[in-house]
Amino acid sequence: MPVELLTGSLIGVEAVTVHVEVDILRRLPSIQIVGLAASSVRESTERVRSALTAVGHAWPRGRIIVNLAPAGLRKEGTGFDLPIAVGILAAGQSLPARCLSDRLFVGELSLSGALRPVRGVLSLALMARASGLKQVIVPEANGGEAALVEGLDVRVAGDLAAVLEHLVGKRTLPRARLSAPAPVSAALDLAEVRGQSLARRALEVAAAGGHNLLLVGPPGCGKTLLASRMPSILPEMTPDEAVDVTRIHSAAGVLPQGCGLALQRPFRAPHHSVTPAAMVGGAGLRPGELTLAHRGVLFLDELPEFRRDVLELLRGPMENREVVLSRARGTVRFPAGFALVASANPCPCGFRGHPTKACGCTPASIRRYAARFSGPLMDRIDLRVEVPALESHELLGVRAGEASSVVQRRVDLARRLQSKRSAVVSCRRNAELRIEQARRAAMCCPAAHRLLALAVDRRGMSARGYVRVLRVARTIADLDGVQSVGESHVAEALQFRAFDGAGGV
């Protein structure tokens, strides 16, 4: 008789239940896996055969049929090895079928029968709890992340033999224990940045409200230095945010092996040669750079050097905070709530407007340089700041700027004010406010209203630009700890959109 047991499969960063049905027919010996299995799943037959032999079980005689349901869902990954091996033994009556119920099995088998870790175990454990399953059996190396799911009996095993003995009652697999958090790299301190008071202020505003920031200046002025200090002033992640980041990095296979919760906000800095699929995801429906930067920072150094088609892919995620991939097999949604920090030179040579170095770029080459990114993309960047070349007294001076810990306290206070407002406006960060939400949250005074109206009339500001100025002004008011947006807050927000560099940036 056919037997059935449960495992799971990833679709993006979410997990779905997969029913593994195994039957052994009295025909010529063979094995066939059906149910839209990818090559990585079909190849499991040889791993399973060798693993069963290694733990002392003979390969059943007859035709083995393995059905992975639902049949219309494509199955990928190596986590199907363990459930297929257990299912074959149960179908051959080497295991009682009753021991398979209310359990979820996941793990890759080596030829010797050892269990190897797989990606996405945290998502699978969350799915198992939501489905009402009582127990999950995972490889030892995945136990730390699976143990993050409360209210679920997670057992870990080092090899197939231990799993089989657990199922027949000869031994009990140990419960998963929380592993040490993922290592946190030492944060670079903002005090190391010399001068650049306007850029430092823009970095603080961007961190407080989750706004997008563009730094424009000549080579060596400190653009990359500033951007790399952004993580040091961001507030610590909440437990829900940490689980969210851990789940994404586990699904992408970039979570350090044997580690548990990810405590550090992501900081992703892809090279300008990155492809569209690597940026938004797509290879096997794995998360791309935009999703890996969720809850953190995406840094694009030398923005004009990125391919135009890659940059245009940013427009939707920057607005909607998610990536929507439509493929022949269906539609997948990835979270993409990142803050963009980008840098650019003012011209191809980088020295336009430099006090000592001459620029040899022609007006036509500057226009071509600026045309590498579109107006709609630039309209989605809240803060645009000129970062001038440092003067000698700034570069050689002994006085340091504010430390990251000081700035982080102000950022944390501003974020707390936004969290308190979230019950009213349904947004945790000011950068996510829609137009009506921004108006309610701003509570602008009459003078601030007049200044905004003047900016719209005289500067031809778009509706999107108006909302973004309002969001930034709200963040500046939060940094000041005041309830209502005033004229000075709007003026500073407009200042951050006044710069027109790179021939139109």
What does it look like?
The chain has 505 residues and is an alpha/beta fold. The chain has two domains: 3-167, Ribosomal Protein S5, domain 2, CATH 3.30.230; 190-498, Rossmann fold (3-Layer(aba) Sandwich), CATH 3.40.50. It has 22 helices and 16 strands. It has helices at 39-42, 44-54, 81-91, 121-130, 143-146, 160-167, 197-209, 223-228, 230-233, 239-252, 276-280, 289-292, 308-312, 315-320, 363-370, 375-379, 392-396, 404-425, 435-442, 446-459, 463-480, 487-498; strands at 3-11, 14-25, 30-34, 63-69, 103-105, 108-109, 115-116, 135-139, 153-157, 213-216, 267-268, 297-300, 322-327, 330-335, 339-344, 383-386. The strands form five sheets. The chain has a five-stranded parallel beta sheet with strand order 11-12-15-10-16. α5 links the parallel β8 (135-139) and β9. α7 (197-209) packs parallel to α18, α7 crosses α21 and α18 (404-425) crosses α21 (463-480). 47% of the residues are buried. Residues 500-505 have low confidence and may be disordered.
Question: Helix and strand layout, with pairings?
Answer:
Layout: E1 3-11, E2 14-25, E3 30-34, H1 39-42, H2 44-54, E4 63-69, H3 81-91, E5 103-105, E6 108-109, E7 115-116, H4 121-130, E8 135-139, H5 143-146, E9 153-157, H6 160-167, H7 197-209, E10 213-216, H8 223-228, H9 230-233, H10 239-252, E11 267-268, H11 276-280, H12 289-292, E12 297-300, H13 308-312, H14 315-320, E13 322-327, E14 330-335, E15 339-344, H15 363-370, H16 375-379, E16 383-386, H17 392-396, H18 404-425, H19 435-442, H20 446-459, H21 463-480, H22 487-498
Parallel strand pairs: 3-4, 5-8, 8-9, 10-15, 10-16, 11-12, 12-15
Antiparallel strand pairs: 1-2, 2-4, 6-7, 13-14
Helix pairs in contact: 2-3, 7-18, 7-21, 18-21, 19-21, 20-22, 21-22
